[in-house]
Amino acid sequence: MRRLITTLIALSFIAILYVLLKPVDDQRTQTVQIESVVTKINKGRMGDYIIELEDKTGMFFISKANIKDVSLDSLVNKLSGQRVSISFIKPNILSRFGPMINKKQVTKLTVGGQTVFSTI
Question: Which domain of life is it from (predicted)?
């Protein structure tokens, strides 16, 4: 009986780890698109670029893994005060319980019909 309980606990732990750590799909079906005016762009503590929007809550960020071809200065010059279209990954159900509650990873950033940044 004790062995059965230990096995069930171990399998439950593995299942929870799988759900929490599985990769996020970066596909068009997994993204949401919004439009707003950029109020502020800066570099976060972890090296990501943080974009704040005029009428939207939360933090929109470009992951440091994806900023090889994009400089902070060029983003500030192109986007400050501009109306932009931002696509971001849909938060999954578990992100409501962790440190990613109000953080949204940007997958595409467009201003005036021109794509400034894209991972798609």
Answer: Bacteria
Q: Rounded CA gap, 75 and 82, in Å?
A: 11
Q: Which domain holds residue 87?
A: 26-118
Q: Does residue 10 lie within any of the structural domains? A: no
Q: In a structure prediction context, what are the per-residue pLDDT tens digits for the chain, which is 120 residues long?
A: 889 999 999 999 998 888 777 765 555 567 888 899 999 999 888 888 999 999 888 888 888 887 777 788 888 888 889 899 988 877 665 555 555 557 888 888 899 888 888 887
For 101, list phi and psi in degrees, rounded to 5. Answer: -55, -50
| CATH code (residue 31) | 2.40.50.140
